[in-house]
Amino acid sequence: MPSPPSLRLPRVTGVVLAAFMTLVATLPAWAQNDPDPAFGAAGPQLTFHGFSDVTFWAQRDRPDGGTDSSWNGFVMGQFDLYFVSRLGDNLSFLGETVFEFNEAGEGVVDVERVLMKYAYSDMASLSVGRMHTALGYWNEAYHHGRLLQPTVDRPEALKFEDDGGILPVHAVGLELSGRAGSGARGLNYVANFANGRGPIPDEVQGGGDLNRLKAMGLKLTFVSDGSVQLQLGGAFYKDRIPADPFTPGREGEIDEQIPGAHLYLLARDIMVIAEYFHVRHEDLGSGAVWDHDAGYAVAIRNSGRWRPYAGFDRVDHAEDDLFYGDNNVDVSRAIAGTRIEFGSFNCVKIEYRHDWHPAEESDALLVQTAFTF
Hints:
By secondary structure, the protein is mainly β. It contains three helices and 17 strands. It has one domain: Porin (Beta Barrel), CATH 2.40.160. It has helices at 11-25, 29-32, 138-141, and strands at residues 45-63, 69-76, 79-86, 91-101, 107-121, 124-132, 170-180, 185-194, 215-224, 228-241, 254-267, 270-283, 289-301, 306-316, 331-341, 346-357, 360-372. Strand 12 and strand 13 (289-301) form a beta hairpin.
C-alpha cells in the first residue's frame, strides 16, 4: 500500500501558523490557566442583548415598455441574539446568532459571529473565530441589529452573503488589530488571515477550506479625534475562490482582489460615511477577467430626536461573471429619510428610495421600527 501523501503548507500559511502557535504559547497566565480567581464562584461575566425590527414596505415597479406593478406588506427582520462574556481582564468571548425568514417564509438559524479575543493592549488584540471581515467602515461599525445603523438597510455592496451582497463580509480565521500612536491622532490597523470564500457567494467556509491558499486582508485607517472626528483609510483583500464543478464554465479557480477606501466624518452634528470597492475576478482556467465597482455615500444629522438623512448607492457589475450568477444586476439608488429616536432602545425610520435598474425603475416607501432588548 503506498504511503499517504505528506501535507505541505504554503510558505505564507506556515509562517502565520507558526507565529500564532508561538503567540499562544507565550500567553499570560490569565489566558492559559483556569478562569481569573477574581470572579470566584460567579464564573464569567456574561452580557446578553437582542435586536430585531419590523418594516412596512410599499413598492411600485415601472419596467421599460411593460405594465407597472405594485405590492406592499410587513417584513419581519432578523431576531438577533448577541452575547458577550468577559473571561478575564484581557480575555473575552463574543457570540451572535440570528433567526430569520427566507424567501419561502421558512425559519432559518445563522451563527453570524463566534470569536475569542485576547486584548494585550491598545496596540494589539488577537481574535479567532467567525467574524466580520475588515473591508471598510460599515461592515465593522454596524453589525446585524438594524437599530445600530442610521438607515433602513445596509448599502447594496455590503449586504450579507445570503442577501445577495457581492463582498465577503464574514470570515472564519484570525484577526490582529490595534492602534499605533497615542493622543488625538493615530493609525488603526486590522489584518485578517482566514478561510476564503466557498464556490458560491453565500458560502462562508467554517468547516474547513477547499483550497490551500487563505484569504488575507489588511485595513489601515488614519484616526483623528476632537471637535471634528475623522476616519480615513483603505483596505485590500485577496483570495482564491475554489472551482464549482456544478456550474458549467466554473471548472477553474478564481483569483479575487478587492481594494477599497472608506471615510467617516463627524463635524458638529453632521455625520458622513462613504466607501468605495473594486472587485476584480480572474478565472485562472479561461483567463477571463471581470471588474465590478460598488460604493455609497450617506449624510446624517447625528443629534436630536429627529435625524434626517440622504444618500446614494451604486453597484456596477461586469457582465457574465459566473461566480455571482443571477446577482449580476446593476443598481443605482437614491434615498432620503429620517430616523426618530424613542430613547436608547427603539427608533422609527421613514425612508423613500428610488432605484434604477437596466430595464426598470422603482419607488419604495419603508417604515421601520427597530429595537433592542
